[in-house]
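Design job #97: recover the sequence.
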């Protein structure tokens, strides 16, 4: 759920020059409750991605808080420790940010949510985040979130870990506070303020003039307010320390997790996004955030802010020259509940489903359900929801085009492993078809085509080239068995015959699709064990070259020249 916009008064959309009265927003919240009670199953987790209220109104916070607690009590939402809440730009108290403290900025949001629900880090109000959170790698209980205790009759927050970790579901949800730079007072022009104050004094007993001038001063100061989405270096540092700690504790289990990041502001432009002229369009440090999420193998980013429904992939930041093969981020823009949907869009909430009970997962489902003001709700959920199948833990091979450089890479491998082909003492044939003597089994026209054959007066050697970017599998072993068998059938009975398999290992380059360290090398060793008898007899020789990233860059650069 995102951009709920509870609270009294009108919600004004400056772009559409329109408003939604409070009564209409309350109707939407009531309707959302009806939809949630009709869901086929209770959600395991709930994400609230900001803009709970309108321009920091306290009654909006309390209204939504009570709404959540009511649905929890009725059994339609999970317990509060499974509900992640992050603030949006409407959830700060505007023009209260002090130079060295953001306490006043977030105080109302904190008071209403942060001793009740897991949440992103709130500076100057939350306890300082721990660098190495305690996690039990053998526990299926929910970990992370908040710890509280009662002090003098009041609930005090002891610890806030801004993530929810469920090893039962192989799921990690991490909350980010992107509202640090929202509602921050700008520096006014001293001369303008001085002149306005002088006019107010000159107004004397004319209260209407004084009120009008005071409103002008207020509007001027409000026009200077900075409203920038920002994560901050401190929060990114905490995030990386938390991920390092989780990796160390969980080991390989960390890679099995489906990882979801939650924040309010969008981190990229969205498909069909309306044009807006603003000082700060997106999160100002979105590049650093996305880099961190991609490096930590996050799968999904859930956000709000734009009131625009969108589900898409974002891999534009991933550098091609890096040896790592990263996941693109799946971006899920939450739209709005009781705000202004963009032109042609609709008020919605979304349900994320993962058909695979545990990781590593390969896919998820996003169901986007519109909030209709009338009609049969179960039928609307079933028939009007849009369904998106999204990749999870999906690498981007198209960013690393192996095929365009393959000829150069084959040449480089042969130069490293079988340079005798470049300086032959006999005759060399390339792209050689090997005769098929088993035409009683398969057609004689089905022939193996090997890389090369070198023939001298006393010897005949058959060569094959295999470039390996991921673990060798059955089809790879089968192909090489076919090659060895076909080459053996073509041995010259009066010469010394040999079969050479040249293998390029790309595990330490950006072409690598390996899921674990040394898995390519181990699969090559397995291949060698299959041909052990032939290797020991000198019939087969396996020659391996481990390409480095620098070496690869030089080769691929030359292939593009």
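Job complete. Output follows.
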């Amino acid at each position: 759920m995102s951009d709920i916009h509870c609270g009294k008064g009108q919600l004004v959309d400056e772009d559409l020059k329109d408003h939604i009265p409070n009564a209409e927003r309350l109707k939407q919240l009531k309707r959302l409750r009806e939809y949630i009670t009709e869901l086929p199953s209770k959600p395991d987790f709930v994400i609230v991605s900001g803009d709970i209220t309108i321009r920091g109104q306290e009654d909006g916070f309390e209204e939504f808080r009570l709404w959540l607690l009511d649905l929890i009590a009725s059994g339609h939402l999970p317990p509060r420790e499974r509900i992640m809440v992050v603030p949006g730009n409407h959830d700060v108290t505007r023009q209260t940010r002090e130079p060295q403290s953001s306490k006043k900025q977030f105080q109302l949001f904190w008071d209403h949510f942060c001793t009740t629900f897991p949440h992103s880090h709130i500076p100057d109000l939350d306890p300082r985040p721990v660098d190495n959170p305690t996690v039990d790698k053998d526990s299926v209980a929910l970990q992370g979130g908040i710890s509280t205790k009662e002090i003098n009759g009041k609930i005090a927050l002891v610890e806030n870990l801004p993530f929810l970790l469920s090893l039962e579901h192989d799921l990690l949800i991490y909350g980010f506070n992107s509202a640090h730079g929202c509602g921050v007072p700008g520096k006014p022009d001293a001369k303008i303020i001085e002149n306005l104050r002088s006019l107010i004094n000159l107004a004397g007993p004319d209260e209407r003039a004084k009120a009008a001038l005071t409103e002008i001063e207020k509007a001027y100061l409000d026009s200077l307010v900075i409203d920038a989405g920002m994560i901050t270096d401190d929060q990114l540092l905490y995030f990386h320390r938390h991920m390092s700690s989780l990796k160390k504790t969980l080991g390989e289990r960390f890679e099995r997790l489906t990882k979801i990041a939650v924040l309010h502001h969008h981190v990229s432009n969205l498909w069909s996004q309306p044009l807006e002229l603003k000082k700060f369009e997106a999160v100002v440090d979105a590049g650093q955030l996305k880099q961190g999420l991609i490096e930590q193998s996050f799968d999904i980013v859930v956000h709000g802010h734009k009131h625009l429904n969108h589900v898409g992939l974002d891999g534009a930041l991933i550098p091609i020259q890096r040896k790592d093969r990263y996941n693109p981020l799946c971006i899920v823009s939450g739209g709005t509940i009781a705000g202004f949907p963009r032109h042609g869009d609709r008020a919605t909430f979304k349900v994320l489903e993962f058909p695979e009970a545990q990781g590593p997962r390969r896919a998820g489902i996003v169901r986007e359900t519109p909030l209709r003001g009338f009609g049969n709700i179960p039928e609307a959920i079933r028939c009007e929801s849009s369904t998106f199948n999204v990749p999870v833990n999906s690498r981007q091979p198209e960013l690393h085009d192996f095929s365009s450089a393959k000829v150069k890479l084959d040449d480089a491998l042969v130069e490293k492993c079988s340079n005798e082909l470049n300086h032959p003492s006999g005759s060399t044939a390339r792209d050689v078809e090997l005769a098929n003597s088993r035409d009683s089994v398969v057609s004689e026209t089905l022939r193996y085509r090997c890389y090369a054959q070198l023939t001298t007066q006393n010897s005949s050697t058959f060569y094959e080239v295999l470039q390996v970017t991921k673990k060798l599998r059955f089809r790879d072993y089968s192909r090489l068995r076919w090659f060895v068998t076909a080459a053996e059938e073509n041995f010259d009975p009066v010469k010394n015959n040999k079969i050479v398999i040249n293998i390029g290992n790309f595990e330490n380059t950006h072409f690598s699709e390996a899921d674990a360290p040394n898995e390519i090398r181990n699969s090559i060793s397995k291949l060698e064990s299959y041909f052990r008898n032939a290797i020991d007899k000198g019939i087969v020789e396996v020659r391996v070259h481990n390409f480095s990233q620098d070496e690869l860059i030089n080769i691929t650069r030359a292939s593009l020249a």
